[in-house]
Amino acid sequence: MISEGIGGAPRTRWAAAVAAVLTVAVGLGVRALLGGSVAEHAGDALYTVLILALVVLVAPRLRPLTAAGAALAFSWAVELLQLTNVPAELSRRSVVARLVLGSTFNAPDLLWYAVGAAAGWCGRRALAGRRARPAPASAARS
């Protein structure tokens, strides 16, 4: 596990919450500014980034690869669930269900979820690596 020191989990949760809010903002921005297939694919990737941020928010001490894997597995499970009638039926009844579950299966989405998980893993790993580095020797002497 990545060492976060005293107070690391609260900082990680804070960063995950900020990442979740920023991910939603970026998703809405992409949708408003770009539209079309670019927005659709970016939305798929950002969906998994959002799930990753929520996983880290709930379990901040998970290794980056484990958190990314959990987010990817969730995203794929939701997409595969769309092969049944359940998400489409729930989506007709609830806007929240439509946002979370979607309604129709689209095989290329599986690839874009993997892109999102990889991007989220890179970001999570970079942040975890920054926190795990020891303080420079000059700072330790102060």
UniProtKB/TrEMBL annotation:
It comes from the Bacteria. Keywords: Membrane, Transmembrane, Transmembrane helix. The chain crosses the membrane at residues 12-33, 45-62. InterPro entries: DUF2809. The keyword Transmembrane helix applies. This is DUF2809 domain-containing protein.
